[in-house]
Amino acid sequence: MTPQSDEDEVWRQIVASFNDTAERDSADQPWPDSENLPAEPTRRVVKPSEERLDDDPLVDDLEAVRTDDTDDENDADETDEADEGHFEPPPPPPLPKVDLPTKVAWVALFGGPAYLLVAALAGWRIEGWALFTAVAAFIGGFVALVVRMGDGPPNDSGWDDGAVV
């Protein structure tokens, strides 16, 4: 027999036994001891809220159960443990200053299509010169932003700007 015919025979056996039930049912298989968990009673901690209703008997019962034997150190330790996994990112850097030509280019880029959209939704009749101005503003704003983008290194990079590829 060739190796190909052996593989074909194994494949036929797999396909033939596809819908057969397993010899051992899953209930018959023993459960591994390493998967058993110790039986610990679940504890539920209920903390009273900061805002307290004076006529609420449940809040009074909780305060009666609560002990005042704790130190300020224990409270500080509990807050440290609670905040341990919490990440607070640093404040973001300030936005860069934008000069007047860049602001005008952005207004033109979004203002032209916005005017056309509002005019179309409102059903206004758009004159030829207004249509031309809106389209020219969009194209001009886009071109101005692309031209101002620049290809060179930033001005503050100094004499050693690292590897230039």
UniProtKB/TrEMBL annotation:
<keyword id="KW-0472">Membrane</keyword>
<keyword id="KW-0812">Transmembrane</keyword>
<feature type="region of interest" description="Disordered">
    <location>
        <begin position="16"/>
        <end position="98"/>
    </location>
</feature>
<feature type="transmembrane region" description="Helical">
    <location>
        <begin position="104"/>
        <end position="123"/>
    </location>
</feature>
<feature type="transmembrane region" description="Helical">
    <location>
        <begin position="129"/>
        <end position="147"/>
    </location>
</feature>
<feature type="compositionally biased region" description="Basic and acidic residues">
    <location>
        <begin position="41"/>
        <end position="51"/>
    </location>
</feature>
<protein>
    <submittedName>
        <fullName>Uncharacterized protein</fullName>
    </submittedName>
</protein>
<feature type="compositionally biased region" description="Acidic residues">
    <location>
        <begin position="52"/>
        <end position="62"/>
    </location>
</feature>
<keyword id="KW-1133">Transmembrane helix</keyword>
<feature type="compositionally biased region" description="Acidic residues">
    <location>
        <begin position="69"/>
        <end position="83"/>
    </location>
</feature>
